[in-house]
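Protein in question reproduced for absentees:

***
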Amino acid sequence: MNLSYKKLFKKLIDIEMQHNELMEKANVSRSTFYKLKNGENVTTDVLLRICEALGCDISEIVECVEEN
């Protein structure tokens, strides 16, 4: 199983938030943000800061997917 952040990027489109705005609001570095974009692992702390910035639950930005 892997984590997918597609829900996060869909949410950003839905609420019309730019990537730079999220990075600033959630205090996420550019390198960490690119890890998200590339589906790499990030810490739970980062995910919780993003949830706080977006006012959402973690299940709204991350999902478990099976490996191919």
About this structure: The beta strands are 2-4, 63-65.
